[in-house]
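pasting for the record
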Amino acid sequence: MSFTPTATGARKATITITDSAPGSPTVINLSGTGVAPSESLVVSPTTLVFNPQVTGTTSAQQTITVTNTGNFMVTFTNVTITTGFALSK
C-alpha cells in the first residue's frame, strides 16, 4: 500500500475486501495528508578562510556541508569553483 497525493490536504479512501468468510466484506479505512514540497538547503559554513599558503603547495582540506532540510529531493547538477582552489569529493 502506498500514498501518492496529487494535491495538498487531507485525503481519505477505503479498501473493501469481499470474500466468503463470515463478516464479509472487510473495510479498511485509509487516510493521508498531501503537503507542498519544501525545497530548502542549508550550507555550513558559508565562508572558508585559508591560512597563508606557500605557492605550489596544497593547504589542508576544509569541509562545507550542504544539508537538505526540506521534504523534496534535490539533485546537484553542477558545482564550479574559481581558479586557485580545488574541489574534492
